[in-house]
User: Fold this.
Amino acid sequence: MKKAVIYFEPPASEIDEMRRILSEADVELTVQSGFGKLGSKAATPEALIDTVDGVHAALLGGEMFDEAVITAASELQVISRIGVGFDRVDLEAARSRGIPVVVAAGSNHVTVAEFAFGLILALSRGIVRGHNAALAGEWVSNVGTDLQGKTLGVAGLGRIGRTLVQQASGFGMLILAFEAYPDAEFVASHDIDCVDLDTLCRESDFVSLHLPLGPDTRGAINTERLAMMKNTAYLVNTARGGLIDEDALYSALVEGEIAGAGLDVFVQEPPRESPLVGLDSVLISNHMAGVSHESMHRMLVMAAQNAVSVLEGRWPRDIVVNGLYS
Assistant:
């Protein structure tokens, strides 16, 4: 019997379904529950190395599978992400070993898009500021701005970005998008104007980031692009913290170059040392945009199903992120 490992204890209903899916493929699931909750980044490579002996499938939350861990896992055949991000897996190290890295594509795009749009609404109307003022006994009007007729810049037209476009269109927003390989039919049917990232920053009232984190996108929102934005504009990030130069964003906010930001992700998490935490113009959340009861179920089940697909020689191309295909 082959062996799979997961690094936290899922809810009972999900773990039972995952065990059933894996056992039907003659795979035993081992729970390494000492590393924290889903998305935990506390596990050291040394600690992870101690868990991978004899493992054929690794089901990962936020654990860092670097070259050392992958090299130590001599029998590993698949790395299956519980979610859609993959920046904490060394893709090249896995590729060199012939190990596909797969993601639960389509498991939480609606969940993330809804959260991103929630941040847009909260920022535009000052909902959190009004809530805090009311609790403090300050019963004064909080004047916000309508979304109808405003321009939303969507950086990245993958599943999440496309879903956000559909939501924003229902509010009568105009849409700009930055996307290297846009779906022409979707762009045309939703009256999207595809532009470069500079133009998107310059012309948008709200910029929402939905790009993968890589060498070409790290720090994409930098001093220069923040200076291009309107001083009434808002920045929303539910993708990866590294897309933003956080020092540049702090300066832009305190100097009034942009009106505010909604941030679910940071370069360092938790962001205890970030100067962005505590700014009145910033709404922060704890990397929760993609997590709901429904999406958790989908992510966990799909991670198990994807591992089985690879172990049985079926590699669905649209879930593999390191270029290895059957």
About this structure: Residues 111 and 293 are 10 Å apart (CA to CA). The first strand starts at residue 2 and ends at 6. The chain has a mean pLDDT of 94.
